[in-house]
């Protein structure tokens, strides 16, 4: 027994019997000012089909847990090209039906209960018939008990402050109707347009494709000094570094960099369907073109480039330095790698991709709450579209290391790319390598945790730490960030962000301490 609710094209089935206080459970459409709703206004490559908020009082939640049931959230129609995102107090889970699953259908409404519409809150639903459809693999999304295992879905409905209602948000997205194996490349090609981006201290939405006129005449004759930012996975330059406009400390950092360099540029590249080595080849081409333009415009001047990378961007920059031929007129002076998986990360192993996708979404939500307005909406749409495509393909088991070379390049073993990159005795002339690292330890954070921080604490304790078995920033193990060619960098080349800051993998560029450390490494 239980209750079934309908919200637009969404079916929501909750467990329990008629003794539960169903009139206290509400299912409503997400408000117009919700970030996901705003972000997915209008048509795009990936579109929002419907969304809902499910609110359950703590007293009812206790009864649901006691009955040991699990709820179901699923699309009513056309599930073959949809994917569902469930968020519960910062814990996120991506789910899709499998090919063998029957569609979830609603039960006939009971005359005493009015039909549920998307226009009004729902306080009661129609009772389920005794014969429930089989729960879909990957559709069991609202767990009111803590089953064994380390999937983030097991955390839903647990670990809450007593007395507070639980609120679950669900969103169903429609993806392009292409074969699952081609889905990621299709979505990434539509969203990510590789090339150099000019970064300014104006709204990141105004950042544009680089033009030679964006370079300030060099203060030092014959040398144009450039800061190049290389983003990580699931984002573009705006998505990776737009956070530099999110708070006063981040703005101060960017303003300082704009005053220090003749140009601050970002390198936008595809992080899923292309490998870091492919990205590096493309970077070599665009920097070669830039060097030629600089020579023509500034009387034979050359480029002196400092590089700051985030996450997977470290592998792109190192591939450019170590695995491609030198570019005439381009000198890499410094390379500062922030949270780079230089020796890989266990989350990038194909068997852990689902956990990575769920976790990355939760971390992105932690950072997105610090933004507002159109920039947050653009970044949310781009990144969630990319993650949704990955989730659909991964859960459908339609992709592997060959289809997702961008992710596979970060796995710590059985990885020819990292074997080549970290082979000792390479002949390439390298700039000084420096890293910025941290270990996310919730019990060391100074100050109270917000609800999202509480979710990250549960993810760290119940998912990431047991999986990795060593210090990490929730995505990359800390030792890997500074392991080059099988050996750790010297202590003087490693800046450690204290765990007390609460810095996690996607927040280095919004946190005051880590920003100061990045700037300090550039000024050394």
From TrEMBL:
Pfam families the UniProt entry points to: DUF7379 (PF24096)
Domain (DUF7379) ranges: 227-422
Entry-linked InterPro entries: AB_hydrolase_fold, DUF7379
Composition bias type Polar residues, residue spans: 114-123
Superkingdom per UniProt: Bacteria
Region annotation (Disordered) ranges: 97-133
Name of the protein this chain belongs to: DUF7379 domain-containing protein
């Amino acid at each position: 027994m239980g209750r079934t609710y309908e919200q637009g094209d969404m079916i929501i089935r909750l467990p329990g019997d008629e003794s539960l206080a169903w009139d206290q459970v509400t299912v409503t459409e997400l408000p117009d000012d919700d970030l996901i709703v705003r972000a997915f206004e209008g048509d795009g490559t990936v579109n929002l089909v419907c969304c809902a908020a499910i609110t359950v009082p703590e007293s009812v939640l206790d009864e649901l847990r006691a009955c040991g049931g699990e709820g179901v959230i699923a699309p009513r129609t056309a599930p073959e090209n949809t994917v569902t995102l469930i968020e519960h107090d910062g814990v996120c889970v991506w789910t899709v039906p499998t090919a063998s699953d029957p569609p979830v259908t609603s039960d006939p409404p009971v005359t005493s209960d009015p039909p549920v519409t998307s226009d009004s809150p729902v306080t009661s639903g129609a009772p389920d018939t005794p014969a429930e459809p089989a729960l879909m693999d990957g559709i069991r999304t609202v767990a009111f008990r803590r089953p064994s295992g380390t999937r983030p879905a097991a955390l839903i409905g647990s670990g809450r402050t007593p007395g507070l209602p639980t609120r679950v948000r669900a969103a169903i997205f429609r993806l392009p109707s292409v074969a699952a194996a081609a889905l990621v490349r299709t979505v990434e090609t539509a969203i990510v347009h590789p090339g150099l981006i000019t970064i300014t201290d104006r709204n990141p939405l105004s950042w544009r494709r680089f033009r030679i006129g964006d370079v300030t005449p060099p203060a030092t004759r014959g040398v144009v000094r450039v800061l190049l930012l290389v983003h990580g996975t699931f984002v573009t330059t705006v998505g990776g570094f737009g956070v530099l406009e999110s708070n006063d400390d981040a703005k101060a950092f960017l303003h300082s960099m704009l005053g220090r360099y003749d140009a601050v540029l970002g390198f936008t590249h595809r992080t899923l369907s292309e490998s870091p080595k492919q990205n590096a080849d493309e970077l070599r081409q665009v920097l070669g073109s830039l060097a030629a333009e600089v020579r023509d415009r500034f009387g034979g001047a050359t480029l002196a480039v400092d590089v700051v990378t985030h996450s997977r961007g470290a592998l792109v920059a190192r591939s450019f330095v170590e695995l491609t031929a030198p570019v005439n007129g381009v000198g890499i002076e410094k390379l500062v790698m922030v949270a780079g998986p230089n020796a890989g990360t266990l989350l990038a192993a194909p068997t852990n991709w689902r956990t990575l996708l769920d976790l990355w979404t939760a971390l992105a939500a932690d950072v997105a709450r610090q933004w507002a307005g159109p920039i947050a909406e653009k970044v949310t749409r781009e990144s969630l579209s990319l993650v949704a495509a990955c989730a659909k393909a991964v859960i459908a088991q339609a992709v592997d290391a060959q289809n997702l070379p961008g992710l596979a390049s970060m796995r710590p073993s059985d990885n020819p790319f990292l074997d080549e990159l970290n082979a000792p005795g390479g002949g390439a002339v390298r700039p000084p390598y420096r890293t910025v690292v941290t270990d996310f330890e919730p019990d060391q954070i100074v100050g109270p945790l917000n609800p999202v921080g509480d979710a990250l604490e549960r993810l760290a304790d119940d998912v990431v730490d047991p999986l990795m078995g060593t210090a990490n920033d929730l995505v990359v193990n800390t030792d890997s960030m500074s392991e080059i060619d099988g050996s750790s960098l010297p202590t003087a080349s490693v800046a450690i962000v204290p765990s007390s800051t609460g810095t996690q993998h996607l927040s280095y560029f919004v946190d005051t301490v880590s920003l100061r450390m990045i700037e300090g490494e550039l000024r050394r």
